[in-house]
Amino acid sequence: MVDAVVSFVVQRVGEYLKNEAVFLRGVRGEVESVKKELEWMNCFIKDAEEKQVDSPLIKQWVSDIREIAYDFEDVLDEFTLQVHDKDEEGESSERKHGLFTAIKKSVAKSSRKGREKLTTYNIGKKIESLKKGLNDVSQRCELYGLRDINIKRDEDCHAFRRMKQLRKTTSFSFEEKVVGYEDETNKLLAKLLADEPRRYVISIWGTGGLGKTTLAGKLYKSSAIKHKFDCCAWVSVSQHFNIEDLLLRIIKSFGFPAKKLKGMSEEDLERYVHESLQGRSYLVVIDDVWHKEAWASLKRAFPDNENGSRVIITTRIKDVAERSDERTYVHELRFLKPDESWQLFCDKAFWNLSIDEGLERLGREMVEKCRGLPLAIVVLGGLLSTKKPQEWNLVRDNIWQNLSNDSIQITYLLALSFNDLPYKLKLCFLYLSHFPEDYAIDTDKLIRLWLAEGYIPHNEEIMEDVARNYLNELINRSLIQKEKTWLGKVVTCRIHDLLRDLSIQKATELNFIHSYDEIRRSSTHSSMLSCRRQAIYSGMNGIAWLQQCNPLLRSLLIFFLKQEGAMMSQLVSNLCTTFRFLRVLEFQHYRNTQSSWCLPKDIDKLIHLKYLGLRDTLIYSIPESILNLSNLETLDLNDDPFCCLYLPTEICKLKNLRHLIGELRGQYLRIDNMTNLQTLISVQDDTWTQTNHESLVNLRKLHLCLNRESQRNFTFDSIAKLKSIQILWVDLSKNHFFSTLQPLSHCPHLRDLSLCGKIEKLPEDMPVLLPNIEHLSLQSSELVDDPMPVLEKMLNLTVLALRHGCYCGKKMVCRANSFPRVEILTIETLYLEEWQVEEGALPVLTGLELINHRQQFQLPERLKSVPRLG
């Protein structure tokens, strides 16, 4: 686990050597030397942690290396600050002398060189101290024989044997009585018993503890299965597997004669299984698969006799499930429904207790916290069944700690998924411990935070795309749950409280993140004085808590803060002078409706800052000094349309800015040549009309609000110059209208289009002009003709919204087989009297929202069973 931290620091040091080469010229060799030593040590860390997890010597050794890595990063950041401050000091001195600046210019240069030498000397001494620390760690490694870790066999390690045994026992210990999943069982049983003669794989995937093995076991023991197949076998694979061992266990499970098998080669064992299965129909369950290679290595042993044989694979990883075989049915196992969760809990908790109103209330509260995870519910029920009724409150107050203490299975089974992650994904997962329980995490915000922290590598790919892949990988590995999706993209996500607890535990062990929860009056660990990332959940006591925090803090997220505007300004000013190493400063869900405030000019002291989040804070003004934050990538500001926000006009000086978000109305901003800008929300007339649009080469998401009389007839000519645009929202004021949509045909990546303003008539060639549009929203269009005959030809549409004032007609028709991909449909029915939906139209519709729904409006019969939204 420490390898994640050390690898990250090594990556950051590489960036320093590349980007700060001028400043590091006096100590570059020393910096590279420490970097190389950390790289070598990191080769041993992961092996050491895995093979001697119970060794206090190993734990102390990797802890020492971790702290040196943290200190090394601190030294480099501090050096950058010193150089910056001395340059600022020199510039201030020159400005102060006015007319004498030119005369003293050469003196200023020579004095600056002297200051650079002094600064380089300071960092040189600190790096020398770090190298000595690394040398001491290496000597202790030799002294205590820790180098021998690499020649020890896995089987010689007690901890490894213990975990391997636990993995075996947990994989095959499915319940005799299975609660819930009746629909899942029937669907999969039908697949197993289908008439299809060819062998195919059924992959069941989902998070650890969800019941995949239990469900597979229920299918395996079904009487219908016993009558269908000539022979059945079950084998558990897990993360570390040996093909010969698996084949031997499969032979044993099938009940085939096992004489003279010992010592046979893998190829001979494959041939034996293959010959033994000839002419037979079989079912084999391959449980707990972590890698695609497992089934790929085994499948040669299983003949396809076209007699209906089946293979069931259970896995936590979506990619493994989908790529198991060329003929695979993938089934994502859902979480239990509330009624199923309660039934399972009652079976475990009340077998020796009488249920009463008080216990039921407490029980339901705790079961809800389990969020449908069967393992958590089973352990909770078993734990409470041993408690006296008066002790239930104590369990509820510390539910996750109680469950982890009561069951080694929970901690171990969930930790397996974390341990299997590459180091870059480990850091991204640990970062989730910043967020409160049951928190809906905005994925765009999360991605920008990961970028600011430096978790995403700088390469030829766009970093946001890499980060999105990281997010999807964590989802596909069942470590994050999708909540809301849009256009196939996850918009918000959640982390199950048990997995959040795991991330907090791992982050605590690494001294990675510290959090203060005022409601619980608790913090995640006591070593906060050296921790470099802080999260605070609500209240003034949390702000006071900051006084004890590490001045080397890199990340500060404050949730649910309530302060007056003047106090808010003073708070931020104090943060800027105290925590000058900050890369991330974020205020989420600030609650105050009484006063607005101005960002203090001290903000320019945070020269390392990459992310500044001030949404929902009623901020109204940003000082000129923010233009000195040359590293800033995200500026996420007030999104209240009724609160005017003023930014410095020369915002284009922030050359590294990638995301500018806020109600940027009522002012002119220079955004020319912001070649890194990807998100711009939302700008108004003057800013847009006076911009060189061709210079915004990477702009992907744009929200325009146009009100000027000169924009009454809006054209998309400027948009056509945005070659990277993917998401476009344009809001026109009343009495303004859109002219031709033809220029949008030059935007090949455009897939999300939202237009608010008059459109005289939808052009017949709209499907040809906009062939890639997946999400279309029209509002205030005042269309007279039924828009459906045109829109139904846009075959890629998945979300269609015809909002307020879009269509003024009384009749609308969705013809047969139209809108083949539309999943979400929003319709205003204020004027609508008749809506015909013919056979085969809207075949995959999963959500319907009706706006201004009148009582006399009759919903088409075919749509009455579609879930209603809004």
Strand content: 15-25%
What integer is the average pLDDT?
84
Q: Which sequence of strands runs across the widest sheet?
A: 10-9-11-12-13-15-17-18-19-20-22-24-25-26-28-30
Biggest β-sheet strands, sense, barrel: 16 strands, mixed
Backbone shape: globular
Radius of gyration: 31 Å
CATH topology type of the domain at 163-332: Rossmann fold
Helix fraction bin: 25-40%
The name of the CATH architecture of the domain at 163-332 is 3-Layer(aba) Sandwich
Distance between the termini: 44 Å
Number of strands: 30
The helix-and-strand class reads: alpha/beta
Q: What is the CATH superfamily classification of the domain at 163-332?
A: P-loop containing nucleotide triphosphate hydrolases
Point out poorly predicted stretches: 93-116, 150-163, 166-173
- Separate helix tally: 27
CATH class of the domain at 163-332: Alpha Beta
